[in-house]
Design a protein that fits this description.
Elements (H helix, E strand, L loop, with lengths): L20 H14 L3 E7 L4 H11 L11 E7 L1 E2 L2 E2 L1 H14 L10 E6 L4 E5 L16 H15 L1
Parallel strand pairs: 1-2
Antiparallel strand pairs: 1-5, 3-4, 5-6
């Protein structure tokens, strides 16, 4: 007889769908507060090329220079396959609450910068940060860096 609780293995994935997304967000927020850093949240899915691109851009050695020392990154899964994860939606709702942004968010990645010290956040539109070619979908590290710098000013 097959077990109902099939073991979840997301060890090779960027978006850890096996984890409770709200708990992962709250842990990352607490860690950022402890380290006196901002929390950069990328809400996405494993099948989203722009989400994967942002994950890699934010972790490139030397990305953003000194800026990289000012934030931690949390990758939050909004989808497991094509199914929406309720905890991922709860994280998006929390980010909207922190930012005061009431827009209905369409598409992923949802990108937010959070100041854990004052619970202020800003949602960042990622479309202008893209650098797509005929063969690749991705983001321009310089544009991403500039968007973060601009956003930090807004949430201090």
């Amino acid at each position: 007889e097959l077990s109902d609780a099939k073991a979840c293995d997301d060890s090779t994935k960027i978006y850890k769908v096996c984890a409770d997304q709200l708990q992962a967000f709250q842990s990352s927020l607490a860690e950022a507060k402890k380290q006196n850093k901002y929390l950069f949240v990328v809400v996405g899915a494993e099948w989203c090329p722009w989400c994967i691109s942002l994950h890699h851009v934010l972790r490139e050695p030397g990305f953003g220079g000194d800026l990289a020392n000012k934030f931690l990154v949390a990758d939050i899964a909004l989808f497991n396959g094509k199914s929406k994860l309720p905890e991922g939606e709860a994280v998006v709702a929390k980010l909207q609450q922190f930012s005061g942004d009431k827009r209905k968010l369409e598409g992923i990645p949802v990108l937010a910068l959070v100041n854990p010290a004052n619970s202020k956040a800003i949602l960042i539109n990622t479309a202008p940060l893209e650098q797509n070619t005929k063969t690749t979908k991705g983001h321009d590290p310089k544009k991403v860096s500039m968007a973060i710098e601009f956003s930090i000013v807004k949430i201090k």
